[in-house]
Structures are given as structure tokens and as C-alpha cells.
Amino acid sequence: MNIRLQLSGLLLLAVTYTNGQTLKKDIVKLDVLTQLEYCKVHTANSLAAIPNDGKSIPRSVPAGNKDWNYVDYKDWTSGFWPGQLWFIYETTNDKKWAVAADKYTQYLLPLTKTKAADHDLGFQVFNSFGVGYQLTGKKEYKEAVLRTADTLATLFNPKVGTLQSWPHNDYGGHNTIIDNMMNLEMLFWASKHGGDKKLYKIAVKHAETTMQNHFKPDYSAYHVVVYDSVTGKKIKAVTAQGYSDESMWARGQAWAIYGFTMVYRETGDRKFLDFAHKITRVYLDRLPADLIPYWDFNAPDIPAAPRDASAAAITASALLELATFTRDRTLKREYEEKAMKMITELTAHYQSRYANNALLMHSTGHKPANGEIDSSIIYADYYYLECLVRLEKLRWVKRFF
Ligand code: GLY
User: What confidence score (pLDDT) does residue 169 get?
Assistant: First the structure.
């Protein structure tokens, strides 16, 4: 989510990789400002349609439907909508968007004052209050983030070395899911903005423990790892939302790529960067030609299996950042070009346009539970918009064509 992405003076010339694949010819021209305008119009339409009941927040639009399904602040996705509104404010500088973003950010206030229900506090509170603070400097937003970072830290088990993800879910121990890497950003931020310094240590320890226990020899991630909460020993690795325990669930790998890239940004520790390269490699090498993953890389019905546009958007955004940290010129170009190809593919073939008011279609939420399959989902929109905001900031797109 970081909005302080550094300019890296990217220059893209060669387009042929070692495997002989050439991407440039596949990339349609992407006009970032036109796409940001598209996002603004769709966001305005969504805003106008939300019931003004003090609680409804858009979450997803089922395939073939026009209207959002709404959730309240307790849902794990509640931070993405205010975050989307903050992004629109950032790119337009029009105060009316800050007013709207503030309204939905405030819906989440109870999360900043109660004990932790689960690890999703980072997704919820950092994408709303955190982004809002970085754009407005409002003291109460910062205080909300600092309070919530302390709350999130209560889920840390020092014996295990991770934050627990789902205290309510009985896997027979202390469970940690790969998605949890994303929530570390709030701990790092808090530790650097007046919060307790121990938050930094907790975030680093969580990342180290995850690096050690959450990956198969090919660097694909397990979804859930269960630890003995007393001895700290790993008990088992299973899936909740993937096809099987050993398969590569697309969004889980995307969270890992984004998460470890962010941890490198926050720590400067090269072991996290090296690891981010490894977990990115297995994802990129197994993608279909259009670079939009099937919901699980091992889904048995590929190519008929549903895609997951959300995983593509998360990964594209992560690659834009990972490229800025990559010294190897060939690898850097590969990341830049593949990120561009993912974003242009999402733009050309996954936008909702007249189907509904979301930004994108064709994401998969929870396939094993038959939930949100081939849907528009708010977190796909959030990371797609983040890609466009990052591209606009990097200002190298024009040089690409
Ligand atoms: N964090 C839950 C999901 O990615 O579906």
C-alpha cells in the first residue's frame, strides 16, 4: 500500500528474455490518466449507489449481477473501499473525495478501539486510516493506526515467532496464513511513527518465521501453517482457500510476493529481497500466456478454471516496487514488462465497464467454499488502482512505448 514508492529512473529498452519470450509486442498502449478517469467514474457510481445507512461498505458483485454486496466494518475487506476513495482523492486532489474517504474510514473506528478479532486489522485499518493519514496528516488517523498496531501485536506468540491469523479458527494450534504478511506493513509504519519499537521486531520475526516454515522447496507458499502454541513447533501446513494443501493458491502467492517486497523496503535486509525474487520466480514461470493466473496454479480443470484478477493486480503492484529494488538489469526489465503486461491485460480484458460499477471482473474469492467465483471483488479494484497510482508516480510509462 506504500504511497512513498521511490522513482527509480527506469529505462526500458530490450524486451527479449532468456527464454526467448518477447512481450513488448503484446502490450497495448496504456494511458494511465484515461484509466484513472475510468476508475473515478466507476467509484463515483458506486458511491452514489451505497445505502446511506452508516454501515454498508462494498465488497463484491457476483458474476452477471450489477449491484454490490455490502458488508460492515467487521469484514476483512472493509478497508479497501475507503482506501480506494483515498487513492481517488490522491490522484484528483479534489476535496470531495477526501470527505467521502473520511466518511467510510470513520466506519472502521470501532476496530481501533476493541481487541483483535483476527490478523486482518492491517488490511482494514492501514488501508483506510493509514492511507488517509499519509494524505491528510490528520492526527486522529495516526492515533487510530498506532492504537491498532498495538492491538494487532497482541496476536504475536513469541514462542512461535508469528502473529496468529485466525484465533477463532480451530486448526488445533496457533495458525498463521500467508496473507498475514500484508498486515506487517502497519507494524513497521507504527514503529517508525511514534509507536512502540517492539512492533518492528515483531514484524521482522514474523517475516523470518514465515520464510522458514511457509514455503515448499519450489518456493510456492502454503496457505495455513499451524504451530504448537506452547512449544512453537510447526505441526502442519494446509490450505483453506486453495485447491489442495500442496497446490499454489494464486492469491496466497501474490500476498507473499507483495509482502516480502514490502518487508525488504521496510528493513533493507537483503535476505528478504533475495527471498522475494525466489517466490516471484515460481509465480511468473507458471503463469498462462496472458499473465493472469487461474485461481490456483494446480486447479485440475485448467484452462476452464476461473481466473483470479485480484492476484494479478496484487502481483503487478508488487512487481512495480520489486523492480525498483532489482539491480540485475535483465531481471528488472522482466519485472517491469510483466507488470505492464498484467496491468494492460487487466485494463483491456478484465475491466467491468458497463457490466457493473466495480473496476474489474473475474476474481475468485473462496473457490472451495463456492464463494465469490468469477466475481468483481473490492480488493482486486484496490490493487488495480494502486498499480495505476504507482505508474502515475513512477512516470515511466510514457518512456515504455
Ligand atoms: N485474505 C483473504 C483472501 O485473500 O481471500
Answer: 78
Which of 76, 165, 224, 364, when mutated, tests ligand 1's pocket best, judged by the most ligand atoms within 8 Å of its CB?
Answer: 76
* The residue type at 128: S
**141 C-alpha to ligand 1 centroid (Å):** 25
Q: Give me the pLDDT at residue 395, please.
A: 66
Selecting among 120, 296, 308, 374, the annotated active-site residue is 120
Residue range 287-316: mean pLDDT, rounded: 98
Among protein residues, the one with the nearest Cα to ligand 1's atom 5 is 365
CB neighbourhood size of 368 (10 A): 14
Show Cβ contacts of residue 65 under 8 Å, excluding neighbours closer than 6 positions: 356
What are the structural domains of the chain? Answer: 3-400 (1.50.10.10)
Respond yes or no: is residue 120 known to be catalytic.
yes
Nearest CA to ligand 1 atom 2: 179
Q: Give pTM, 2 decimals.
A: 0.93
Residue 327 CB contacts under 8 Å (≥ 6 apart), including other chains: none
Active-site residue among 26, 72, 94, 179?
179
Average pLDDT, stretch 192-203? Answer: 98
- Alpha-helical (H) ranges within 286-362 are 309-324, 329-345
Using 50, 70 and 90 to split pLDDT, how confident is the model at 396? low
Q: Which of 71, 177, 179 to mutate to test the pocket of ligand 1 (most atoms within 8 A of CB)?
A: 179
Among 122, 101, 102, 125, CA closest to 112: 125
- The residue with greater pLDDT, 7 or 78, is 78
As a whole number, mean pLDDT of residues 202-224 equals 98
Kindly list the distances between the CA atom of residue 49 and the CA atoms of 176, 295, 350, 356, 384, in Å, as whole numbers in the listed order. Answer: 37, 29, 22, 11, 21
Q: What proportion of the chain, given as a percentage, has pLDDT over 70? A: 91
Q: What residues line ligand 1, using a CB cutoff of 6 Å?
A: 76, 179, 241, 251, 365
DSSP 195: S
Whole-number Å distance, alpha carbon 10 to ligand 1 midpoint, is 32
Q: pLDDT value at position 23?
A: 47
